[in-house]
Amino acid sequence: MDDQATKVLVSRRDLLKGGTAAGVGVIALGGLWRPARAQAKKVVKLSFIGPLTGGTASNGLGGRNSFLLAVAERNADPKSKYRYETIVLDDECKPTVAVQAALRAGSDPEVIASVSHYCSVVAIATVDTFNKLGLPSMVWGAVLPDITYGHKHVEITRVNGTMINQNHIAADFAVKKLGFKTFSIIHDTTDYGRGHAKYFTEGLERLGGKILSTTGTAKDQKDYTAELTKVKAEKPEVIYYGGLTPDGVRVKVQMDKLGVKAQFQGTSGIKSDTFIETAGASAEGVYCFVEGAPTEKLPGGKRFLEAYAKMAFKEPSEAYGPFAYVATHLVIDAIEEVGPDRPKVAQKLKRTRKPDTIIGPVEFDEHGQNTVPLITTHVAQDGKWVVWEDSEYATGKRELPGLKFKRERA
Length: 410
What we know:
Blueprint: H1 3-8, H2 12-17, E1 25-28, E2 42-50, H3 57-76, E3 82-90, H4 95-106, E4 111-116, H5 120-133, E5 137-139, H6 146-149, E6 156-158, H7 163-177, E7 182-188, H8 191-207, E8 210-217, H9 225-234, E9 238-242, H10 245-258, E10 263-266, H11 273-279, E11 287-291, H12 301-310, H13 321-338, H14 342-350, E12 353-357, E13 360-363, E14 375-381, E15 384-387, H15 392-395, H16 401-409
Parallel strand pairs: 2-3, 2-4, 4-5, 5-6, 7-8, 7-9, 9-10
Antiparallel strand pairs: 1-3, 11-14, 12-13, 14-15
Helix pairs in contact: 3-13, 4-5, 7-8, 9-10, 10-11, 13-14
C-alpha cells in the first residue's frame, strides 16, 4: 500500500477515537476503506472545538461524534465535490484554552471553517479571534446572546438558540403553569451564569415573581453550605440555578443534605445524562429547558439516532449533538456551493436559509442567529430526562418536590 493510500484508509478504531490524549486529532474521513487512486477530490479541512475533558465533556464528546458523523456522511456521498478531513480540538470549557484552539485552527490555511463551542464562556472569548483570522465559526451549543448579538463579525453564526427565549419561557413555566411566586437565584459568575440570571430575572419581573436573593458563586466551587444556609432561611419556593452540570449537581445534592425545601430549576446547562447519573436520587423532580425538542422527536431525529448508532460511538449524542450535526452539514453545504474560500463561506453561512434540517427549519437573522422557535421543558423522572408533557408530573400522577413543599407549608 502506498503512502497516500495509508493516509485515507481510516480504521473504525481511529474514527471513534476522535483525538489524542491531548484532545487534538486529525481524522481523514474521506474515502473510508477505498484506495487513494480512486480519490480525485481536493482535501478541505474542518475543525471542531468543544469540551472533550472536564465536567462538561459529555456534551463535548456528543457534539464531536455528531460532527464526525456528518463529515463521514458527506465523504460517502459521491456528489460531494471535496474530501473533508477534520481537526478535533479540546477547549476544556476554559477561555484561554479555547482561544489557543481557535488560533490553532485558524492558523492552518487549509481549515476553511469551524464548528465550535458548547460553553458560552469560551464561545464569547473566541469571537474576536475567529474574526481576526477570518475563519467562519458556527456555534453549536453556547447560548449567551452576545456571541451573535454583541458584534458585527461576519464569521460568527449560531445554529442553536439563546438564553433570552429560554429564560422567558422558564419564568412563564414556573409562575404561570406551576404557580410558584418566590425565588432565590444562584448562578456561577461566568458570562454564562450571569446571563441566565439576568434574563430569568427579566422574565420573573414581567410576571410579578418575587426574587428573594441573587447569589453569584465561583465556577467549580465545591462547597455551597454558606450560600444554601442563607437561602434556606429565606424559604423560597424555587431555587433557580444558572450554571453547568458539575456545579449544578453539587448545589442540588447539598440542598438535600441541608434540608432546603425548595424546587430546583435549572438551565440547558444541566441537561445531560451526567447530571442525572451523578446526582442520583437528588435529580428526581428537577426540571430544565433546552432549545429544540428531544432528539427522537425532532423532524429528522429518528434517522439521526439510527445513523449515530451505526457508528458505534461510546458516548451518547446528548442534547446538543443534533445541533453540531446540523452545523456541520450547513458548513459543508456552503463550501460545496461557493468553494473552499473563507470569506465566501462566511458570507454564505450568514445568509443561511434551509427548511429541512433534522432540527427543523434553520433561518439566520442579520446577526447570524438561528431563530429557533421551540423550547422544550424536561424533568428528571426515574433516572432519565423526560419531556414534561410526557411525564407523570404533568399528568398529576407524581408531585414535584417544590409543589409538595409548598402544599405542606400552606
